[in-house]
Structures are given as C-alpha cells and as structure tokens.
Description:
By secondary structure, this protein is of the alpha/beta class. The chain has two domains: 1-74 and 148-159 and 179-235, 3-Layer(aba) Sandwich (Rossmann fold); 77-147. The chain is built from eight helices and nine strands. It has helices spanning 42-49, 92-103, 108-116, 132-144, 162-177, 189-193, 213-217, 222-230, and strands at residues 4-13, 16-26, 31-35, 57-62, 77-80, 150-154, 181-185, 198-203, 206-212. The strands form two sheets. It has a six-stranded mixed β-sheet, sandwiched between helices. Strands 2-1-4 form a three-stranded antiparallel β-sheet, with helices on one face. Strand 1 and strand 2 form a beta hairpin. Helix 2 packs across helix 3 and helix 3 (108-116) crosses helix 4 (132-144). The longest helix is centred in the last third of the chain and has 16 residues, at 162-177. It is globular and about 45 Å long. The termini are far apart.
Amino acid sequence: MAAIVFKGLTKTYGTAVAVDNFSAEVQPGRVTGFLGPNGAGKSTALRCLVALATPTKGRTRILGRGYRKLKNPQTRVGVVLDSRGFHPGLTAYQNLRVLTSMGGIDKSRIDEVLAEVELADARNKRVKGFSLGMKQRLSLASALLGSPEVLVLDEPANGLDPAGIAWLRGFIKSQAEKGTTVFVSSHQLAELETIVDDVIIINKGKVVAAGSVAEVTGGERLEEAFLRLTGSGLS
C-alpha cells in the first residue's frame, strides 16, 4: 500500500486553479521529492494532504486514511509546512511541551528531538531570538515528537546556510534509514538529487513526471530534467 495517495486532487480559489486533477503515489520507506516552479501548486497539495485545506474535487490519503481520520495523527505523520507557528515568547522546550500535551506524547521526547536537530543548547532560549534556520530545525523537532511513520516537509531548507543544508541532507538520510517515508518539497535540486529515491514534478497544478530519479531524468541531472519538463527557471 502506498504511504501517500493523491487521487484526482483539484483545488480552486474562485476562478484560479491551484491544483488540477493531480494524481500520484508516494511509496513507503522511500524519500520522494515533490518538485515544481513557484506557484505550481505544491504547497496547496500538501495543505490538502494534511487537512489544512479542503479539496474542491478528489481526495488524499496518508497510510490508507484521510488525515483527520488517523488515530492521533501526530504519532503517525510529522508535518513541517511553516516555521512561523511557534509562540515567540516561549522557549524551544516550552513550545514543544505544548505539542506533547496536545498529542498525548511523553515529554521525554522533547530533549530527544532537540538533540536530534542539534538544538539542545537552545533548549531554554525564547523562540523570538531564533534565526530562521533555527526555527526550521525546531519545526523538524516538532515533526519528530510522535516518532511518525511519515514525514511531510515543505521547503525545509528555507533559512538554512550551506552547512545547515548539508546537515538537512544527513537528517533526511537518517530518517530514511529508519524506514520513515519522507515526502519533501524543495527548490534545492542539487541537494535533493543526492538523497531522493523518487520524484514527482508538477507544473501549473498538473503532474508532468513521476517515478524513480533514473526514470524521470533519463541520465540527465535532476535540474536539467526539471527545466526540460517544466519549461521554466527556478525562481
């Protein structure tokens, strides 16, 4: 069974079509890159996947169910869509403590995930003093709290410097080695090429390619294949 399924997903806002009859599958235990130019519909599709937006048509499934129908979804699916959702006046530990309380997760996980994203030293620092890169790491920590089977990451490299991007590469690899399914949207194509097993590319809300990296690229670099398939730049 596929870990994630999009079936005929369509999302419109008035007359604007953000996602257009999008169908694709993400296989379990693999790293799948979700690619497309700005405005292609990636973030909208991900928001529909985790029930932050309602599809106009079609459906999405994670682990065989709609996100809202998962029992305690925080322990099944870890989600990073925005690093701005933390209370700036609370510390890293306090923000994560709120999430463990909401999800019925043992608070011992907080220090474990802070160590995993290398924020242990910032445990008692207020989030308002965090850089964007630190907020991204804290978002990843929040996604890991429930030891999920699936990670859904939207542009997790935003705000990371080159060293941070290299760290993120290792982080995603380590999650995959544990058997976690990782579905990651990113513009960092050179970095993605080294870690993804499969890719799904959309343009103007439609799928233009899906499959293993080798199948989609046909021997090209991933960036070259992306530009050819979308007919666009990476701005």
